[in-house]
Design brief:
This protein has about 525 residues and is of the alpha/beta class. The protein has a domain of about 90 residues: Phox-like domain (PX Domain, 2-Layer Sandwich), CATH 3.30.1520. The protein contains eleven helices and 21 strands. Strands 3-4-6-8-11-12-13-14-15-16-17 form an eleven-stranded parallel β-sheet. Strands 1-2 form a two-stranded antiparallel ribbon. Strand 16, helix 10 and strand 17 form a beta-alpha-beta unit. Helix 5 crosses helix 6 and helix 10 packs across helix 11. The chain is elongated, with a radius of gyration of 40 Å. The C terminus is likely disordered. It is found in: Cell membrane; Cytoplasm; Early endosome; Recycling endosome. It comes from Balaenoptera physalus. One of its GO terms (molecular function) is phosphatidylinositol binding.
Length: about 525
């Protein structure tokens, strides 16, 4: 196998061929271009694999190829261009191959409405060819006319541009660093760009009137590079239609048709003011970047879906002022330890908080009162290893616990039963907390009283009135699960006529029923039961 190294300007690549490939090439060139038949080194039958013959043939084949290129200085014949892989790496060869492909399949691709995939190197070749100002069909073959490419790109609606990491093929060409112009596309509705350099992409803004969906991944270091590349030319700019204040050096048209933008997997560190140019955005994906603060999103009045997962967010204070009508919010994979900034996102339906640093169950209360929340994800947070984690989280949603799907798992009836018990216990704790201070005051007043309460012998038995400090009955009822914690005061008649100071009571849950117990004063029989 002979390894051929081809150089075209700063681009280099290698091609491997056997002697038989050279022989086939030569036969075609003799037939098509009438070159000298004796130009190719002859075959050898005896000793063809000897080292000396191989070295001599290598030098002769080098001379053969150099002679061919000198014979055709402007445009290499098609067979020679393919032999040297010009259709992969050389500008004229690339555009000729693309033009021929679109001549044969272009109408079919446009009619099917499919996404057309093209390489950055191909776009670079077309851009360079147009800048050279040469005839659109230098080879003389109508199928390779550059006009087939321009006609196709004017009508194409769905485009995908995918580069490569590292050198392309056997060449030294770094596709992701090549500049290219997208202004030849006049009707784009959707574009996907990956592994390119956003700073080297020109003409994308020409699609502002028609582009509805855009994805730029593994390509950008800022949002400005994509949305307002001309911003670097002006000190102060404002979007078209905005009220102009102060010194404005440029008014930039907005992306009036853009509703979905994917800028994930880039190196974006901030949500800058370029979002003013995408006022109709509904879906925004900024995941897998380095965003530190949620900012400037108050300009996106139509935003309903926001993905900020796997960034560097550590706090959410005041986020409700930036995300007024958000319905789906993905904050997974950040550095969040507090959820206090989410308590006013009243339209929120879906919330992903997995892979963060949330430790305290109290943090969940910030989202427990959101009226529309239906799906919550909290996996891989420190609090997710707490015993009975699911039921304790669901209990924070109160009466809406049955409407919430936690960690993509439907809530079971058993979990809802446990949630009801936890809610009853929580209410009892709250009651006990409220009683602690008033009861202490009443006890002190009883000890300081000089006149004991004595029932006259002639009067009928009396019932001690319910203490004003005791709460009214608390009822929690859902289906056949109920817990009643009645506030009650027993009759002390017949047990000495003296009513002791109120004493605290506790609620004990047994088998789904409640029982109230109190410490018994001296001389009072045990055994009073309260149905619950």
């Amino acid at each position: 196998v002979y390894i051929i190294q081809v150089t075209d300007g700063s681009h280099e690549w290698t091609v491997k061929h056997r002697y038989s490939d050279f022989h086939d090439l030569h036969e075609k060139l003799v037939a098509e271009r009438k070159i000298d038949k004796s130009l190719l080194p002859p075959k050898k039958i005896i000793g063809k694999n000897s080292r000396s013959l191989v070295e001599k043939r290598e030098k002769d084949l080098e001379v053969y190829l150099q002679t061919l290129l000198a014979t055709f200085p402007d445009v290499a014949p098609r067979v020679l261009a393919h032999f040297l892989h010009f259709h992969f790496y050389e500008i004229n060869g690339i555009t000729a191959a693309l033009a021929e492909e679109l001549f044969e399949k272009g109408e079919q691709l446009l009619g099917a409405g499919e996404v057309f995939a093209i390489r950055p190197l191909q776009l670079y070749a077309v851009t360079e060819q147009l800048q050279q100002g040469k005839p659109t069909c230098a080879s003389g073959d109508a199928k390779t006319d550059l006009g087939h490419i321009l006609d196709f790109t004017c009508r194409l609606k769905y485009l995908k541009v995918s580069g490569t990491e590292g050198p392309f093929g056997t060449s030294n060409i770094q596709e992701q660093l090549l500049p290219f112009d997208l202004s030849i596309f006049k009707s784009l509705h959707q574009v996907e760009i990956s592994h390119c350099d956003a700073q080297r992409i020109r003409g994308l803004v020409a699609s502002k009137p028609t582009l509805a969906t855009m994805s730029v991944r593994f390509s950008a270091t800022s949002m400005k590079e994509v949305l307002v590349p001309e911003a670097s030319e002006f000190d102060e700019w404002e979007p078209a239609g905005a009220a102009l204040e102060g010194t404005v050096t440029a008014v930039i048209p907005t992306w009036q048709a853009l509703t979905a933008l994917d800028l994930s997997h880039n190196s974006i560190s901030e949500i800058d003011e370029s979002v003013k140019l995408i006022p109709k955005i509904e879906f925004l994906d900024l995941s897998h970047n380095g965003v530190l603060v949620v900012d400037n999103l108050q300009h996106l009045y139509n935003l309903v879906h926001l993905d900020l997962s796997y960034n560097k967010l550590s706090f959410l204070e005041g986020v409700h002022t930036k995300l007024g009508n958000i319905k789906t919010l993905n904050l997974a994979g950040n550095l969040l330890g507090s959820l206090s900034g989410l308590h006013k996102l009243y339209s929120l339906v879906n919330l992903d908080l997995s892979d963060n640093r949330i430790e305290q169950m109290e943090e969940v209360r910030s989202i427990g009162s959101l009226p529309c929340l239906e799906h919550v994800a909290l996996l891989n947070n420190p609090l997710s290893i707490i015993p009975d984690y699911r039921t304790k989280v669901l209990a924070q949603f109160g009466e809406r616990a049955s409407e919430v799907c936690l960690d993509n798992t439907v809530t079971t009836e058993k979990e809802l039963d446990t949630v009801e018990v936890l809610k009853a216990i929580q209410k009892a704790k709250e009651v006990k907390s409220k009683l602690s201070n008033p009861e202490k005051k009443v006890s002190e007043d009883s000890r300081l009283s000089a006149a004991p309460c004595v029932r006259p012998s002639s009067s009928p038995p009396t019932v001690a009135p319910t203490s004003a400090s005791l709460p009214q009955p608390i009822l929690s009822n859902q289906g056949n699960r109920s817990c009643t914690c009645p506030a009650w005061a027993p009759s002390w008649a017949g047990v000495g006529g003296e009513m002791p100071a109120p004493v605290p009571y506790t609620v004990q849950m047994q088998g789904g029923r409640g029982a109230v117990s109190t410490p018994a004063p001296l001389g009072v029989a045990h055994g009073w039961g309260v149905p619950g």
